[in-house]
Amino acid sequence: DTGVSQNPRHKITKRGQNVTFRCDPISEHNRLYWYRQTLGQGPEFLTYFQNEAQLEKSRLLSDRFSAERPKGSFSTLEIQRTEQGDSAMYLCASSPPGDQRTDTQYFGPGTRLTVL
Amino acid sequence: QKEVEQDPGPLSVPEGAIVSLNCTYSNSAFQYFMWYRQYSRKGPELLMYTYSSGNKEDGRFTAQVDKSSKYISLFIRDSQPSDSATYLCAMRGYGQNFVFGPGTRLSVLP
After folding, report:
1. What is the pLDDT of residue A71?
2. What pLDDT was estimated at residue B64?
3. Cα distances (angstroms) measured from residue A33 to each of A45, B2, B15, B59
4. What pLDDT score was predicted for residue B9?
5. Beta-carbon contacts below 8 Å between A and B
6. What is the pLDDT of residue B94?
7. Which site from A30, A116, B73, B102 is most exposed, i.e. has the minimal number of CB atoms within 10 Å?
């Protein structure tokens, strides 16, 4: 299966701990997105990378969140000093290069974070 | 008021029915409109993609965009039990900040 993969699939942590999630996009997809989804809501945009450059970041994103894509391939999302409100599904999506008017995002299965 | 509104449902229909799903939005800068399907415990899957106003058809699915009314629709013809899922509308302007609606849960009963 060459779809978007995310690890871990589940993470339980205590409040105040740091967590890091990994996303491996589809090979040769240069665009990568992170979203957060809570129960009964649609995905909420967090940040966007084109290759290794982080080009967009949600204004609502706390400074405790940081994302990287150092070599333009896999990406990591780190949450520092986790809070109970951070409990959610964190989704990663990737898109191939080309005409951005016809972009298709391919989503991974997500990482479910529970902060106790 | 949220940027994108969507009736959360649940919406239950008999197999074979025509389903109409709708979203309204407030940001006139949105230019690109999408519909995603999300099964339980899975990531969303793109169904339809439309640029600006107009209609687009793909198999049993038809997407409509009315920018003057800030209203988009997805129609599903001959609905099947396998169509049971949450349907999310999404949209963006010229950036890559996609805004999703909260989703409508659909159940198609055999």
Report:
1. 87
2. 96
3. 8, 22, 35, 28
4. 83
5. 57
6. 83
7. A116
